[in-house]
Amino acid sequence: MTTLLHNERFVLVSVFAALTLVSLWLQFVLLKPAQKTEEVALTHDPDYYVENFTATGIDPGGIKYVLEAERLVHYPDDGSSLLDNPHVIQYEAEQPPRHIYSKSGWLSGDGKDILLTGEVRVIQGKGDESAGGITTTRKLKLRLKD
Question: Fewer CB within 10 A of the terminal residue: the chain, N end or C end?
Answer without folding.
Answer: N
